[in-house]
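Consider the following input, taken from an annotated entry for TonB family protein (Pelagicoccus mobilis).
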Amino acid sequence: MTPSRFCKSIIFTIFLLAGGSVLAMDQEMRSIEEIQVRKQTEARFPGSMRVIGIKDGSVSLVVEIDRTGALQDIFVLQSSRKAFTKSALKSLAEWEFSPARCDGQAIDSSIQIDLTFEIDQKLKWQVQSPMAASQARTHSDGSPIQTAPFNSLDQIPFPIEIVEPESSPEGQATIEFYIDESGTVRCPRFTESTSIAFGQLMLDSVNKWKFEPPMLAGVETNTMVRQVFTFEDGRLTASDLN
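Applying the prediction step yields:
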C-alpha cells in the first residue's frame, strides 16, 4: 500500500531517532506516578519442577494496566522454564493493581514484574520500569527467542497499519512499547508528556498499530521501542532522548 503522509512522518521519525537527530519542544513535561500492586497472590512452585529436581526459577513479565486498574495484557520477557511461566501467569491473573497517574489522573500504562521461585519458599517479586531483555517469550508461545536491541535489527520495522489521530492538541510525549515477533504492539506506556490529553492520544493510537515483524539475522524477534512524538504547527516531528 502507499503510505499516508502521517505514516511517512512516523517512518521519518523512527529513522531520526535511530540516528539521534534533535528537535525539542519548550514545554514542561508532566510527572508520572507508576502502577502500584494492591494485592499479590502466591504463585505455586510447579510440581513438575520439584519432581525432576529443579529448585528455583525466574520469570520477568510486563503487564499492561488500564486507567481503571484492569489487567489488559501480559508480555513475558524472560522465563527459565515453561512451567514457571504457566504458574506466574495463573497467579498474575488474580493480582490487583492501582493505575499509573499523571498529575493525579489515572492513565493507561505498563510495568515490569520480576518473579523468583524457590522450592519451599514464598514467591519473591519486584517491580521496575519496563526494559529490554536478553531473551523473551510471548505468553502464547513457550519457545524462547532472541530479543534484539532496536538499533541492532536488520532494518527498521515498517508500520503496515497506522491509526491516525483525527485531531490532536500540540504537545510532546515519550512512548515506550514492545513490538513482538508478529509485529504487534505490546504493553505501551508514556513516560512523559506535555499534557495528559496528548500522551493518552498517542498511547491509544500506537496501541492499534501493526508493524512488519522485527528481524535479526533473518529471524523474527521482539524489540523494545522508545519514541518521542511531537505535534507542532500541524506537523509530526521527532525529538532526541538525550
